Amino acid sequence: MMNSHILIVEDEAKLAQFIKLELEYEGYQVTVARDGLTGLANARAMNLDLILLDWMLPGISGPEICRRLRSTGDKVPIILLTAKDEVSDRVTGLDAGADDYIIKPFSIEELLARVRANLRRTQEEDTDLLQFSDLRLNRSTREVYRGDRLIELTAKEFDLLEYLISHPRQVLTREQILERVWGYDFMGDSNIIEVYVRYLRLKLEAEKEQRLIQTVRGVGYVLRELRD
Fold it and tell me: Along the 228 residues of the chain, how does pLDDT read in single tens digits?
């Protein structure tokens, strides 16, 4: 869970800085926004693992940010930081889409524990989600996205991409790919891998995106960015 990217949306400067320093000490990457509009923009633009969200903010309230993110399908864990401790307020926050809440004033130990618990739960739920660069593959739904673009793949194209993205930056030989994707008893054309790699590249690079499936001449293929 270390190196997880956490967004703090908090207009109280001293509190925001205190939380930021504590999270960074624990090994997290942290971004701070001081108002609701900036927080919402950051939440939409960044690849976040968790949001710490104040209830009362300039511009847009915390619960409204929750509602807007959830309305677009964003499932990033959100912990509301609030001085409102009435049951009705907690219900309002949870109904807006927050995953958890913590009442101000709070101890930093409790906040860190809540952060760990929400990150751990998300990671357990995301075992079917694989991502490399801007490429995302969902094993359970068999959906593939490049950025926000949904890519339609055949069953075998999906199987090949799943194998590659399960072993990022690892050179996979043609023999390994044939055995894993087509099976031990495959007796077809030995050029089948090249054919399907070409199909995948055409679909993954349809809008001139960077090539991710690289050829290792004489060996096989590897999923990596060119700068790797």
Answer: 557 999 999 999 999 999 999 999 999 999 999 999 999 999 999 989 999 999 999 999 999 999 999 998 888 999 999 988 777 887 888 899 999 999 999 999 999 999 999 998 877 666 678 889 999 999 888 999 998 899 999 999 999 999 999 999 999 999 899 888 888 566 666 689 999 999 999 999 999 999 999 999 999 999 998 864
Strand, helix or coil for residue 3: coil
- In the DSSP assignment, the letter for residue 210 is P
Inter-residue contact 34 to 14 (CB < 8 Å): no
**H-run or E-run covering 220:** strand 220-223
Tokens of 44: 């939409």
pTM, two decimal places: 0.57
Q: Is the peptide bond before 58 cis (omega within 30 degrees of 0)?
A: no
Task: Tell me, yes or no, whether 48 and 155 share the same domain.
Answer: no
**Residue 197's CATH number:** 1.10.10.10
* CATH code, 44: 3.40.50.2300
Residues 146, 134 contacting (CB under 8 angstroms): yes
Q: What is the DSSP string of 184-204?
A: TT--S-TTHHHHHHHHHHHHH
| Residues 143 and 188 grouped into a single domain | yes
